[in-house]
Design brief:
Largest sheet: none
Structural class: mainly alpha
Shape: elongated
Number of domains: 4
Number of helices: 20
């Protein structure tokens, strides 16, 4: 954490904006360092908030310090020690904290220049520990590494604030009672533990890329937060190919964000997008990560998906897309991470390579998959292929089924337009 994180670079240059910049961007780093030192997530969260409050009082008077993060850490650490000293069970609690600290290893010294050591990787693995419910891992990651408030996390998951507060409290209680260690797994554990961390970040991105419900197709704030978290993970785990693959996948997909919706927020499908609006620097950054994700060992699912996204982004249009290679990559993905959704996407690619009947045959083979029955892209894909085959009565029925399942207003609007094109040609 250094002086570039706050101060002159903030939007309005005020001390309050400086505090917000430090707190929002580096809160996870500060919180992780405090958890490492004191072994208590609740304590770390409380004194972090108190340190920010102190900064809001002091910085307008004294000015923003050269290293605001170090100032916050010093203030928070003092407040934590004061709080522990006031605790009636001070001696017992310190003894427990010392045992936990010994298990975690020595606290790293500050980085050159007085900056905080980066302990966020430990916090990633704590928030995504397999002992926690899957639905809680992404919420904790947003809360403690993304720096979102509980109401903001609740909005991200479209649940009431009180519901999310209970979920976060339940998860923290689980961490405490199960004595989940605040540490990076050893080399022998990492292959089993890392996918859970990556999945927590990816689930945040997928909700931002394609909202499950609500008035918007995309929730760019969530998608961008997930990209930021993936950058942190890749920086902390530079040799992990799937961390590179996840970041590459997100960048290559998020690069299309401006072209994915029309003026009224309506969805614009890939074949209709203005590729001139795609973010070329982001695509170039993502393309660099794909070879790193696919070399040095068997491919992982995020690396393969990044390679698929790269083929789409490199093509001038849908017609010139390398569909045979995309189908081949989906074959690899089905072998290493089989799922009905992957099979659905592969069928769509086969339809582009071999024609709509070939794709429809594959979709019909998936008709019994429970996961796809409640997934509106499945009947929508069938409707599109049926329409291309001239079977419009069946296509209209499939579009109506998709309409019943679609969760967002823009998706429903697109499906209604397509249904109208069939039922009222020329409308």
């Amino acid at each position: 954490m250094d002086g570039r994180d706050a101060g002159a670079g903030t939007p309005d240059g005020t001390p309050a904006a400086s505090v917000e910049a430090v707190f929002r961007e580096e809160r996870g780093r500060l919180l992780a360092a405090l958890v490492r030192r004191f072994g208590d997530l609740d304590l770390a969260e409380e004194v972090t908030s108190e340190a920010v409050e102190a900064a809001l009082e002091r910085w307008p008077v004294d000015g923003v310090p050269p290293k605001p993060g170090a100032w916050l850490m010093t203030t928070a650490r003092r407040k934590a020690v004061d709080r522990l000293r006031r605790d009636q069970a001070f001696a017992a609690r310190l003894a427990v904290l010392q045992v936990e600290a010994d298990r975690a290893g020595p606290v790293p010294a500050a980085e050159p220049g007085g900056d905080l050591p980066d302990e966020r990787l430990r916090l990633f693995f704590t928030c995504a520990h397999p002992a926690l419910a899957a639905e809680d891992r992404a919420a904790l990651t947003l809360r403690y590494l993304g720096g979102l408030t509980t109401p903001e996390v609740a909005r991200a998951f479209l649940v009431p604030t009180a519901t999310m507060a209970k979920r976060i409290t339940r998860a923290k209680k689980k961490i405490r009672e199960a004595r989940i260690p605040f540490r990076v797994p050893g080399a022998d554990e990492l292959p089993d533990r890392l996918p859970g961390v990556l999945q927590a970040v990816y689930s945040i991105f997928t909700e931002g890329y394609a909202a499950s419900s609500g008035p918007l197709l995309q929730r760019l704030d969530l998608a961008e937060e997930a990209v930021r978290l993936a950058r942190i993970l890749h920086r902390l785990l530079p040799r992990e190919r799937e961390a590179a693959g996840l970041l590459g996948l997100m960048l290559l997909v998020h690069a299309r964000r401006d072209a994915r919706t029309g003026p009224a927020g309506e969805p614009v499908l890939l074949e209709e997008q203005d590729r001139g609006r795609w973010d070329r620097p982001m695509i170039e950054e993502g393309l660099v990560l794909v070879p790193a994700a696919l070399t040095g060992g068997p491919p992982g699912p995020y690396g393969v998906q990044a390679a698929i996204a790269a083929l789409h982004d490199e093509a001038a249009d849908v017609a010139s897309t390398d569909w045979p290679q995309i189908v081949a990559l989906y074959d690899v993905l089905l072998a290493i991470a089989p799922s009905p959704v992957v099979a659905l996407n592969r069928a769509a690619a086969v339809a582009m390579r071999d024609g709509p009947q070939a794709g429809l045959d594959l979709l019909d083979e998936l008709a019994g998959e429970p996961l796809l029955r409640g997934h509106h892209p499945y009947p929508a894909a069938r409707a599109d292929l049926l329409h291309r085959l001239g079977r419009d009565a069946e296509a209209a029925s499939a579009y109506r089924e998709a309409l019943d399942l679609a969760g967002t207003d823009p998706d429903r609007a697109l499906l209604r337009r397509r249904l109208d094109m069939i039922e009222r040609p020329g409308s």
